[in-house]
Amino acid sequence: MDAIKVQVILFWAAVTVYVAATCLNLIAIIFRKPNLTNFSPCLAVIGFLPHTAGIILRWMQTGHFPYWGKYEVFNSYAWAFILLYLVLFLIKRELKVTGTVLFPVAFFMIGIALTGSKETTEIPSTFLTYWLGVHVAFAKLAYGSGLISAFFGGLYLWRAGKSNTDSGEDVPGWVPSLDFCDFYTYRFAVFAFICMSIMIGAGAVWAYKAWGRYWGWDPVETWSLVSWFVYGTLLHLRVTMGWRGKRGAWLSIIAVFIVLFSYFGMPLIYDTVHEHLEL
């Protein structure tokens, strides 16, 4: 059995576990059985093991971390999101609620990855650099933390709406308090902003080493900068004008949609040097 077939089997094994975790979370939500979410970290570990094995096998096969083409990029993003979930759980157990969004995103990304070409291709020498690795790593952290910030923002709006209509009697037990949601909407927005800053800085250094210029107004570069400004504005409004609660929640959701547009939309609309790194 060749390396690619083994990778596909490993990734499908991970998908199966992530789907199971997603279904378990849905059952916990629909039937109000919050204790079922206690199994999520165990399932994350079970799925993460074959997922990691597949990533390592691809790395050994190509000689570089998986960041080239749809098959590698989406698999590595899904891997990074599950790793982020496990780290968050170890830091604070209550953050296991983030699995509600990270599990389905992960298996959806792996599904997209498996539709891409799995053949290895020669990568230009300009892409084989330490700074590109830093750029890609912090892009994954930025997008993952932005997604979690928007998730907590959505939970805040949901819980606030329930509280306004029926005194919170129908709020499921797994939904954190308003203060908890607001706190982590802001904290993950801060982390996304920091990671995005490092991502852009490392990308600029890589661009200088590759093409002799720090900035070229590539479409993905430009929209990454727009995303950075949006998160900076979100944090500025919170600190200086007290924009928290519903306004902060809505801003976090708007911000992640802009990030998604820069990630998915730009490579489809315009030619970009990020095409192989993004899709």
From TrEMBL:
Domain of life where this protein originates: Bacteria
InterPro entries for the chain: Cyt_c_assembly, Cyt_c_biogenesis_CcsA/CcmC
GO BP term (any one): cytochrome complex assembly
Residue stretches making up the Cytochrome c assembly protein domain: 69-274
Keyword Ion transport (UniProt): no
Gene Ontology terms for molecular function: heme binding
Pfam families (UniProt xref): Cytochrom_C_asm
One cellular component (GO) term of this entry: plasma membrane
Protein's membrane topology: Multi-pass membrane protein
Keyword Magnesium: no
Locations listed in the record: Membrane
TM annotation in the entry: 6-31, 43-61, 73-91, 98-117, 137-158, 188-208, 220-237, 249-270
Principal location: membrane
Keywords noted in UniProt: Cytochrome c-type biogenesis, Membrane, Transmembrane, Transmembrane helix
Protein name stated in the entry: Cytochrome c assembly protein
Annotated organism of origin: Thermincola potens (strain JR)
